[in-house]
Structures are given as C-alpha cells and as structure tokens.
Amino acid sequence: MNRATFPHRVLPWLLIAPQLLISLVFFYWPAVQALWQSTLREDAFGLKTTFVGLANFRKVLADPAYLNAIQVTVVFSILTAFFSMAVALFLAVQAEKVVRGKGFYRTVLIWPYAVAPAIAGMLWLFMFNPSFGSLAWPLKQMGIDWDPLLNGKQAMGLVIAAASWKQISYNFLFFVAGLQAIPKSLIEAAAIDGAGSRRRFWTIVFPLLAPTSFFLLVVNGVYALFDTFGIIHAVTGGGPGKATETLVYKVYNDGFVNLQLGSSAAQSVILMAIVIGLTAFQFRFIERRVHYG
After folding, report:
1. Residue 39 lies in a domain
2. Cα of 255 vs its chain's centroid, Å
3. 29 in a domain, yes or no?
4. Crossing angle of helices 152-181/210-222, nearest 10°?
5. CB-based burial of residue 168 (10 Å sphere; 0-12 exposed, 13-18 middle, 19+ buried)?
6. Mean pLDDT computed over every residue of the chain
7. How does pLDDT run across 193-249, given as a tens digit for each residue?
8. Domain count, the chain
9. Share of the chain above pLDDT 70, in %
10. 49 phi and psi angles, rounded to 5 deg
11. Are 260 and 253 in contact (CB under 8 A)?
C-alpha cells in the first residue's frame, strides 16, 4: 500500500485546520465551559457566582425528577432506535423487490428526512390531536380514550412514533446501500439449494448487514438522546406530568426556563459522559459481534 506523502510538514496541518477549529469552537470549548460552570452556583442573571465543587452533581443525582428523566430517556431511546431501524429495514427489503419504479419509491421514502424535527412533531400532533386530529377520530371510534395531552403513556407513544418516523428515512438510505452491496450470487445459490425467502434473509442477508446495523445503532442512539429535542418540545413539552421529559429536555428546562444554570450545566456534563460511555460500550462489546465481510 502506497503511503501519501506531503512536500511540506505544515501542509497536513493546514488541511485539517478548519475541522480542528470547528471542533475546538463548537465542541471542546463549550464542553470545558460546561464542566467549569457545573462546579458553580450562579444567580439567574449571572451577577454572582460561588464555587461549590461537586454539590450540583450530588443535588442532580439525588433529585427524583432527574431519575425519572433517566428512566424516560432509556425507554424512549430504546424504542425509538428499535422501531426506526426495524421499519427502515423492512421498507428497504421491500423496495429492493420492486422491479419497476424502484427509484421513485426510494425517493418518496427518503423525503421525510428533509422535514425539520419541530415540523415533524407538529405534523404528528395535528394528526393525533384529541380535538381535531384526523387520526385521533378513528381511535375514539374504536372506543380508545385517546388524549396524549393528559395521558402520559399515550404521550410517550406519540413522541416515539414521531421520532421514529423522522429517522426511518435516514436508516432506510443506509440499509438500501447495505443490501445493494450483498453479492446476488449468494442469495441465488441459497435459493437453488432450496432456502426460502425468510431463511435467506436471516441466514445470509441479515448477518451481512451487521456493519450497517451497528453503524445505525450508534447513530440512532445519539439521535434519540439529542436530536429529538425539537420533536418533544413541539409535541408534549416534556409533559404531561414530566412523562416525556428526557435528559436533554430537562437540561433545557432547568437551564433556560427555570434558570438553574449550575444544575443544568451538571446535567449536560452527565449527559455527555453517558453518551461517551454508551458509544465506547457499543464499540468495545457490540462491535466484536460484527462481521465485516
């Protein structure tokens, strides 16, 4: 393998300087600032600060509302990642079976990803609004007492559905690419040997999609933890009764609404540690089971 060489030692640093600058300004500096702010107690206007060490962390971890947010986040993240990936895989497999108009169907299934999270949340809220929602009326006709504005479980189901729908297109795109990379000769050979469509999928197709699935598992985990803020804010605002208040939404609520700056900073540091630990766990233990053929 030929190794790339540069005529001058400064050139490689100049090439990566924009990315380093962006990472420094938008990630490392805010992370350090949040870490420092988490050790302070500030008034709402930032006029007086007191160094309190780890007091904010102890207060946050002892708060029942924060423990509830952790539980809500775990349920929300797992179900959102599962449904968005499962539905996307099903649609990708079905789209590959289409003979005519395959490109059209792929384009239509990718479009929802262009919708902003807040807009996606509003769409689902309007469709399932208990007063005038077009999809809420059939539920009431079926005898279901549908009101996600008052029922916590229904509200959780609604935000999971909205968040999953928003992410399906992204997962679909990668699953289609993964399916196209699988040699057709393997599937044809299995069909000749008498393997049915289900057996071909679970013994050949699905194992060969492991690298794609692992990548999407990491991406969907981060998406559920961070990028769903707009959906939750638009649909439920963390309610009813904090039933849909995830960790990232609680950071916003305590910091920007209640102006508890030290507590909010401590929560952001904990959330950052959770994401780093979760990603490291996925690469340390789950990636071992991934076969890169």
Report:
1. no
2. 22
3. no
4. 150
5. buried
6. 86
7. 787 888 888 888 888 888 889 889 989 998 998 889 999 999 998 888 889 999 999
8. 1
9. 94
10. -130, 145
11. no
Q: Is the dihedral of CA 167, 236, 229, 63 positive or negative?
A: negative
Angle, CA 92 vertex, CA 89 and CA 94 arms, to 5°: 110
Range of the domain at 235: 49-289
Q: Is there a domain that residue 14 lies in?
A: no
Tell me the pTM. Answer: 0.86
Residue with tokens 């804010």: 233
CB 175 within 8 A of CB 88: yes
CB atoms within 10 A of CB 15: 10
CATH number of the domain encompassing residue 59: 1.10.3720.10
- Across the strands, what pairs with 40? 51
Q: Encoding tokens for residue 105? A: 């169907």
Alpha helices in 62-183 (DSSP H): 64-97, 102-110, 117-127, 136-141, 152-181
Q: Which residues of 49-67 are buried (b: 16+ CB within 10 A; e: fewer)?
A: eeebeebbbebbeeeeebe
User: Which residue do the tokens 């009101």 mark?
Assistant: 147
Q: Would residue 107 count as lying in a domain?
A: yes
In tens, the pLDDT along 256-292 reads: 888 888 889 999 999 989 888 888 888 777 766 666 5
Given a contact cutoff of 8 angstroms between Cβ atoms, the answer to whether 289 and 211 are in contact is no
